[in-house]
Amino acid sequence: MRRRPRHLLYDVLLWLVMSVLAAASGPDPFVDPSRFLFVTGGRVLLLGLAIAVGRPWPLAAVVILLPVGPWDFREGLATVGWDFSGGQATGDQAWPLSLLAVKIFPLTPTTPAVIWYAYLTGRRLARIWPAVAVLGLAAMVGVGVVLAKGAHLRDWFTMVSALLGFYVVPYLLGALRRRLLQQRERAQQSVAAQARLRERTRIAHDMHDSLGHDLALIAVRAAGLEIARGLTPAQAKAAGELRVAASEATERLRQIVGLLRDDIEPAPLAPVDEDVTALVERARESGMEVSVEMAPAPVPALAHRVVQEGLTNAAKHAPGAWVRVAIAPERISVRNGAARGGSTALPGGMGLTGLRERVRLAGGTMTAGPVGDGFELVVIPHAGEPDPHDA
Question: Which of 161, 180, 168 is nearest to 62 (CA)?
Fold first, then answer.
């Protein structure tokens, strides 16, 4: 981990504060200078080494601070007394012989540093066994300290509370913090992945709705030009090749849309930005024979998408056929007659499938199928139910 200037400043300040605490709680330099230099100087040196390596390698800092760990049992966060006959006493009162005074969580000048680096170990170290090994080493040191003090029962209690308070609990808190951060990061990644899938779906259906419609109209114009009078055989052949090329481009577009589409998400999100009148006028300009019956009422939100899909299918499957569009608040229909030319459509399209899903999400119903010598697409939108994708 690269040490930034502010991190260096924080580490120096931490070392100065911890050094002052170590000096204040150590031997008096005026009474015993040599002991002050050995004890306090050793603490300051170990603190400096631990802080120097603690940011990138907190477990190494824990090992360095083992000699100045919680092995001084004279002061503790609490003093508890047990009466083996069943009573209990606490405080600074004089203890009877039947009571056992125990120091809980011994306090030393290096307590904050040891706890901090144990917490950082749990926060940054994913592997468990190195931390377990260091805890075993600390336990061995604690056992040696207790044996050196005479192996009294109260010292065993103090040593266990020291191991738990200095090493185990801070490490577990750091590990919990690491797990929570990992879960939050995974949640953010999941949200980003869902957003990418929705964007792919939007792109796929926008390509299908707009480009597919335009390519179908190009094929219709090319088919009309192919049978127009006054063309030379070469020109008619070129028009036919243009019609076939438009049909092949439509098929390639369908394949690309199939790769982009996410089957889990409800499909289309946004068609081209134009109203039904402009859509019909563009189809007429391409050579389609389209008539419109529109009730004098607000146009249903689904009308644009339904009319677009109906005109596209008519252009591909029934070139040259008449098309009748009827729009009312309670019913939208697109019907075409018999084809006058060869179909440019290829099997496997997904336009009606996407439209059916959109209608279902809007709370409506859709039917599509042959009627007489033509085809009819009918959608019954529910009144007051807007298109969920703002079509």
Answer: 168
- Check pLDDT > 50 for residue 68: yes
| 388: its two tokens | 């969920």
pLDDT at 173 over 90: yes
CATH number at residue 306: 3.30.565.10
Burial 22-48 (b: 16+ CB within 10 A, else e): bbebbbeeeeeeeebeebbeebbebbe
Give the pLDDT confidence score for residue 3 in this predicted structure: 60
Domain-located, residue 94: yes
Give the three-state DSSP class for 79: strand
Token couple for 199: 């964007």
The predicted pLDDT at position 127 comes to 86
Is 61 a member of any domain? Answer: yes
Last residue of a domain, one of 159, 188, 217: 188
- Strand pairing of 365-371 and 331-336? unpaired
Each as own residue / partner, the long-range contacts of residues 155-161 (CB below 8 Å, 24 or more positions apart, any chain) are: 155/73, 157/102, 157/104, 158/73, 158/76, 158/102, 158/103, 158/104, 158/106, 159/73, 161/103, 161/104, 161/105, 161/106
Q: Name beta bridge partners: 326.
A: 293, 333
Q: Which residues contact 119 (CB under 8 A, 6 or more apart)?
A: 170, 171, 173, 174
Q: Residue 137 sits in which domain range?
A: 5-188
Find, among 169, 171, 165, 170, the residue nearest to 73 by Cα: 165
Same domain, 182 and 201: no
Tally of CB atoms within 10 A around 228: 11
CA nearest neighbour of 304 among 236, 210, 188: 210
Residues 162 and 267 in one domain: no
DSSP alpha helices (H): ranges in 164-299? 169-206, 212-226, 233-260, 276-285
Global pTM exceeds 0.85 = no
Is residue 236 within 8 A of residue 222, CB to CB? The reply is no
Q: Is residue 133 part of a domain?
A: yes
The tens digit of pLDDT for each residue in 196-219 reads 777 777 776 666 666 767 777 777
Sheet hosting strand 289-294, strand order edge to edge: 289-294, 322-328, 331-336, 374-380, 365-371
Total domain count for the chain? Answer: 2
Domain-ending residue, one of 188, 210, 232: 188
- Provide the residue type at 84 as one letter: F
